[in-house]
Amino acid sequence: MTPEDRDAITGFFDRLKSLQSERDPEAERLIHQLMERHPQTKYYVTQMAFFLEHAQAEAQNRIRELEHALEQQRSGGGLFGGLFGGGRTAPPPAPVHAPGYRPGMFQQPGGFLGGAAGTLTALAGGFLLGSLLGSLLAPPAEAAVPPAEEPQPAEEEALEMDIGDESW
Q: Does the reported pTM lie above 0.90?
């Protein structure tokens, strides 16, 4: 374990310690029993939660970037907006990172942080594979019959003109 791993884990648990919300006692007992029965899951649950905390921050950054780009496009700051005296473009929003973020932290080989992305990828792959197998083995769903399309007003006028205009 690297010093960065130690700091990340400690900081993560410090943030969790400060949470104050009601917990379902029955769910808490079940989680405790399962953790005692499968102690190795504590490591993977911590890895996943830490990784997802950072993934959520990155997703929020990407949403902010896309919203900014869309706003710039709408306000005339598009591709050629400045060429013909269009509006000035606002600077993109500064990224916000989860606590303890360091660039490349999940790309380091081995260790707690380096294995977090692999753990989540393996878990997500298992979910996808299970979903795929479930859909392949499930009985076929009844085909939905699309509703009959009603002609649009423009189409109705065109039909009336064809029928009513006998001059051609």
A: no
